[in-house]
Amino acid sequence: MQKVLLLTIGMFALGFDAYVIAGLLPDIGKTFSLSDSQTGLAVSAFTLCYALAAPIFATLLAEKPARKVLVLALAIFSVANAASALSFNFYTLLISRAVAGIGAGLYSPLAASSASSFVSEQKRGRALGMILGGMSIGTIIGVPIGLMVAEHFAWQGTLWLVTVI
């Protein structure tokens, strides 16, 4: 179950990152002098790449060792979040959000399949529930925490927190 717990923490980070950006949009808009509709593209870039990457990469990397792909996916996700925090213009932010979405889309389906393979058949439902719960908890707890962090350390501080997780 320790491996499932580690996957759950990764899913927590994905849920946190996917939803906290919406709350950070006003601050991002101020930073880059953009309208709300323009800054909303940061959410769309992440979500679109997440949605496209999940089925594409799950198919392309099906034969690769799960552990290496999971580590690669989290590395891509983390580096992209750091790049988002360091963005010097909005286009850099959009690209880094898209890459973070690719990392998340690569991680999520593989985490689900790996979680079920790490446990006995009787515990597969529990393992899947844990990792999906991790994503939900990232949304429920991570978003308010991320917004509190942004109050003290700007929106970039929240993205650094996601990077650390």
Largest β sheet strand count, sense and barrel closure: none
Overall mean pLDDT: 93
Shape: globular
Give the strand tally: 0
> What is the rounded distance between the termini?
19 Å
Would you tell me which CATH topology applies? Growth Hormone, Chain: A
Elements, N to C (H/E): HHHHHH
The CATH architecture comes to Up-down Bundle
Uncertain regions spanning at least 5 consecutive residues:
none
Tell me the number of structural domains. Answer: 1
- Radius of gyration using CA atoms only: 16 Å
User: Which structural category do the helix and sheet elements fall into?
Assistant: mainly alpha
Share of residues in strands: under 5%
The CATH class turns out to be Mainly Alpha
- CATH H-level homologous superfamily name: MFS general substrate transporter like domains
Task: Count helical runs.
Answer: 6
Helix content: over 70%
